[in-house]
Amino acid sequence: MLGKVKQLNELRKLQSQAKSLQRELEQIKETVEYGDIKVTVSGDQKIIALTLGEEERKDIVDAVNKALKEVQKKAAKKMMEMGGGLGGLLGKM
């Protein structure tokens, strides 16, 4: 039983050290600028801030809109494969 208590205390100590390390990592910050892009990340590998130039912002908007358009086409095709979309349901009303 004494061995189990000792192991439990060791585990608590390790958990405390892990939490302390996590807090320390959160305090580490690094900012990198690449052209008109500026990104700040933390030591726990999270993006804290992201600044984009106008051209990069436009490229992202264009890419997202293109992806949405493509997924809409695929969704429409899938709905047609499942019985003509909603047309069949509306006709039965």
TrEMBL record:
Task: Provide the coiled-coil residue spans.
Answer: 4-31
Instruction: Give the top-rank taxon of the lineage listed in the UniProt record for this protein.
Output: Bacteria
Q: Is Coiled coil one of the keywords UniProt gives this record?
A: yes
Q: Which InterPro entries match?
A: YbaB-like_sf, YbaB/EbfC
Q: Does the keyword Coiled coil apply?
A: yes
**Which GO MF terms are attached to this record?**
DNA binding
Keyword line: Coiled coil
Listed name of the protein: Nucleoid-associated protein, YbaB/EbfC family
Native species: Candidatus Woesebacteria bacterium GWB1_43_5
